[in-house]
Amino acid sequence: MNPRSQSEKILAELQYDFRSFTIEDFIRWIGEIKGRQIFSIPLQMPIGMFGAWLSDDEEPNEYIFYRDHVPAMYQIHIQLHELAHLLLGHPTLHINRETLAAALDGKRELLFNVLAQLRSTEKTEDEKSVYELESETLASIIQEQIIRHSKLE
Amino acid sequence: MNALIEITLCALAWAVALIRLPSILRSKAWRSDRIAFRIWIAAFFFALTMTFLETLIGDWINRLSSANLSRLLAYSSVSMTLYLTASSFMITFPTPKNRRQLPYLKPYLLFTMGLLVILYVLLVSHGPRWGEMPVPATLGEMLFKTTLFSYAVVLCVIMALACYRYLNQEMVAITKVRIIAIILTATGGAAFFFTKLILNLGFIWSPLSSPWILSLSKMLMVATAILWGGSFLHNNVYTRVLSFLRGVRYWPVYRDLNYLVNSLDRLCPVVAFEEEKPSLGKFLRNSEYYLYRATIRIFDGKTFIEDLLSREKGEGLSFGWDELSYQEANQIHQVLENIYASGDFWDIVRGFRIASKNLSRNRLYSPQEVLTWRPQS
Q1: Contacts of B293 in chain A (CB under 8 A)
Q2: Confidence at residue B377, expressed as pLDDT on a 0 to 100 scale
Q3: Nearest CA of chain A to the CA of B174: how many Å?
Q4: Would the pLDDT of B364 be above 70?
Q5: Could you say which DSSP state residue A18 is in?
Q6: In this predicted structure, which of B100-109, B139-148, B263-272 has the lowest mean pLDDT?
Q7: pLDDT tens digits, residue range B58-90?
Q8: Which residue among A57, A106, B6, B114 is least packed, with the fewest CB closer than 10 Å?
Q9: B274 to A148: CB separation less than 8 angstroms, yes or no
C-alpha cells in the first residue's frame, strides 16, 4: 500500500472531525483511542532535530517533544509527524519518568542522538527511511484535511 | 422527438424518482423532512410528464379518452413540478423577498391549471391530434401552449431569483456551487421556455418561427437537461470539481514557491524524505497537499539555516557550504526573517511567495555563471 492510501486508511479509522481541529484536542483523541496519555513538550533541539517521540517504560504514557521558538504551524506539523509514528506503530526508544524529569530539569540529556540514529539513514529504500516517509505523509495529509475543511466550510 | 429519445428520457425521469423512493419511505419524509418530500413529489410529477409526452402512451390515452388529453395531463403535471420545485427553494432559502412571494405561487398554479382545463374543454379537445411541430396548427393549440410556456418562464425566473437572493448568505462552498448549478438550470429553463413561447407565437406572426430560434431552442433544451442532470450529482463530484478549480488557482503560487524550495534543497539536507516535484496533473488532484509540503520544506530549511548561522561560521563551511552557498544562506535567512510566519496557512504561503519572488529577483550568481554570461541579442 502506498503511503497516501495507508494514511487515508488510518485517518478514516480515526473518525476524527477535522472541522474543529486543534492539536490539543487531536492529541487527546489519539490518546483515548490508544489508551495512552500523550504529553507534548516544547524543547530546545540540536541542529537537524525537529521533534522526537519517546515511550514510557513503566506508565501508559507517550512523550512528544517538539522544537520551541518556531512558528505555531511548524510546531503543529512536528507534533503531527511524531504522532504519526505512534499511529503507524513505528519503533521508538523507551524512557522512564525519572529519566524524563532529570532531562527536563537539565540534569541529563535525552537520547536524541540515539533516536536520530534509529530514524536517519542515507538509503531511501531503507526501513528507517520508509518510517519517515510514512509519518511525514500522514502528518501532511492530516494538515491537508484541515486546510481543505477550512476552504469548504 | 425520436421514440428512442422519448423512452430514454422517460426512463431517466422515473429512475430519478424511484431511486429516492426507498429513502423517502424509510425516513417517512412526509413527516420528518417535508422539503425532501416536496422535491420527491416534484420528481414524480416530472416522471409523469415525460410519460404522458411519450407518443405511444399519449396516443393510447387519447384513444381511450378524448383528443389530446395526454397533453392536458402532461402540462398539468409539469405545472405541478415547477410549482413544487419553486416553492421548495423559497422555503429552503427564506430571504424576506422569497417569504413575501411564496403565498402567490399556489393561486398562480391554480389559475394556470384552471385556464388549461378551460382551453382544453372549449378548444383543444375538439381539435385535431397534435403533431410534433414547432409552430402550432390551431388557435386552441397556440393558446394552450402559450398558457403553459409563459407560466414555465415565470416559475423558472422565480426559482433562479429565489436562489440568487440567498447565494451570498451561504457559507459552505459545496452548497454554494450547488446553488449556482440550480440558478444556471433555472435560467437555462427560463430561456428554453421563452424560445418555445416565441416559436408558439409564430402562429400569429410567421417571422417568429424562424429556424435559428428553433435551433437555439434545441440547444437550450440540451444545456438545461445537462445542468438538470448535474444538479443531482453526488457531493463528492462537486468536491472534486472545486478541488480541481482551486488547483488551477494555486498552481502559479506553487511555481513561485519553487524557487525558494529549490534553493533550500541545494543548501540543506533532506528532512524525513526526498520529495519529487509533482506534474501539473498530480498537483491539480491534491493542490493543498503539495502547497503544504512546499511550506514545510521552507520551514525545515529556514530552521536549519537559522541553526547553522547562529553558530560559528566555520560550522556552516564545514557542513559543505562554499563561500557562495554561505552568502546565499545568509540572503535567504535575511529575507525569511522579515516574513510574517505566524498567521494562518494562507498568510504564511503569501509571505513565502513574496520572499521567493524577491529572492529570485536578487539571486546571487556563481563565478562560473558570471564568467560564462553573454549579453542576449
Answers
A1: 140
A2: 44
A3: 7
A4: no
A5: G
A6: B263-272
A7: 989 999 888 899 999 999 999 999 999 999 999
A8: A106
A9: no
The phi, psi pair for A105, rounded to 5°, reads: -80, -5
Q: Do A81 and B173 touch (CB under 8 A)?
A: no
- Determine contact: B340 vs chain A, CB below 8 A: no
pLDDT in tens, B222-255: 899 888 878 778 888 888 888 888 899 999 999 9
- Note the helical H segments in chain A: 3-14, 23-34, 72-88, 97-104, 112-119, 127-152
Q: ipTM score here?
A: 0.87
Q: Which pLDDT does position B315 carry in this prediction? A: 57
pLDDT of residue B99: 94
Q: How many CB pairs under 8 A join A and B?
A: 70
Distances in Å between the alpha carbon of B91 and those of A59, B46, B86?
A: 58, 20, 9
Average pLDDT (A43-62) is: 85
CA-based nearest residue in chain B for residue A50: B300
In sequence order, the β-bridge partners of residue A61 are A37
DSSP collapsed to 3 states, chain B: CCHHHHHHHHHHHHHHHHHHHHHHHHCCHHHHCHHHHHHHHHHHHHHHHHHHHCHHHHHHHHHHCCCCHHHHHHHHHHHHHHHHHHHHHHHHCCCHHHHHHHHHHHHHHHHHHHHHHHHHHHCHHHCCCCCCCCCCCCHHHHHHHHHHHHHHHHHHHHHHHHHHHHHCCCCCHHHHHHHHHHHHHHHHHHHHHHHHHHHHHCCCCHHHHCHHHHHHHHHHHHHHHHHHHHCCCCHHHHHHHHHHHHHHHHHHHHHHHHHHHHHHHHHCCCCCCCCCCCCHHHHHHCHHHHHHHHHHHHHHHHHHHHHHHCCCHHHHHHCCCCHHHHHHHHHHHHHHHCCCCCCCHHHHHHHHHHHHHHHHHCCCCCHHHHHHCCCCC
pTM score: 0.69
* Subunit contact B345:A129, Cβ cutoff 8 A: no
Q: How confident is the model at residue A150 (pLDDT cuts 50, 70, 90)?
A: confident
Contacts of B289 in chain A (CB under 8 A): 140-141, 144
